[in-house]
Amino acid sequence: MSKAKPKKTKQTMDEKLNTLRAGVLGSNDGILTVVGVLFSVAAATTNQFTIFIAGLSDLLACAFSMASGEYASVSTQKDTEKAVVEKERRLLETNFDDEVAAVKRHYMTLGVTEATAVAIAKDLLAKQPLETVVSIKYDIKLGHYMNPWDAAFSSLFSAAAGGVFPLIAMTFLPDAMKWPGTILAVSLSVALTGYLSAVLGKGNVKTAVIRNILVGIITMFIHYYIGTLF
In which broad location class does this protein mainly occur, judging by the first location in its UniProt entry (predicted)? Predict the structure, then answer.
């Protein structure tokens, strides 16, 4: 008799957004770090192989660095969330009345009368005590923790993909188009990541796009200037 496969828990919107966030940030970093190295090296030498290897090496280093950073960061967040859940599990056993009071206060801040808030709190804690307190006190959905592997792989691939744009432009465009083509490719790429970050963060799209383009231009200028010193 075959065993039933465990049902896979569906990701929450927060989990999906966290993975997308890691991807957008990874892509942005991949673009800027790779173009920085490319401009520094290309300003110092005209050897195409040297420029390409420098850019490719930085692309790989950036991708793995971003992935490891995301993994460490999200793992810490996940461990913190699990620790909070365990703390609340103990409090429900030792300080149940305080947990009821916390849930009651939450509903009273929403405009519910004290009597109704007490009734709601007791009803919820009788049915789903742990789920209720971690949701109300910490905005954590029980059993749904940020996945460090999802964030790491999202950052890894997006950083590598982002770095490909300036690398291809600087390596394969004709000499006459190499510099303006790379600048254009970077500007368009960081404008896109700025737009996506604003949409995901519910921020001002115009400000985010302009800010990213300015950061990209400044990054290219600084690294080009450093390259001309050697």
Answer: membrane
Cβ-based burial of 10 (10 A; exposed 0-12, middle 13-18, buried ≥19): exposed
Amino acid letter, 124: L
Q: For residue 104, what are its two tokens?
A: 């009651």
Instruction: Assess contact for 178 and 105: CB atoms under 8 A.
Output: no
CA distance 42 to 50: 9
198 in Cβ contact with 205 (< 8 Å): yes
CB neighbours of 20 closer than 8 A, spacing ≥ 6? 154, 196, 200
Compute how many other C-beta atoms are within 10 angstroms of the C-beta atom of residue 145. Answer: 19
The answer to whether residues 189 and 26 touch, using CB atoms and an 8 Å cutoff, is no
Question: Residue 66, Cα to own-chain centre: how many angstroms?
Answer: 10
CB count within 10 Å of CB 136 equals: 17
CB 67 within 8 A of CB 156: yes
165, 185 in Cβ contact below 8 A? yes
Tens digit of each residue's pLDDT (9 = 90 or more) over 2-37: 344 444 455 666 666 767 777 888 888 899 999 999
Specify burial of residue 211 (Cβ count, 10 A radius: 0-12, 13-18, 19+): middle
Q: For the packed helices 205-228 and 175-201, what is the interaxial angle rounded to 10 degrees?
A: 140
pTM flag (> 0.90)? no
Phi, psi of 174 (to 5 degrees): -60, 155
Cα gap 53→56, rounded to integer Å? 5
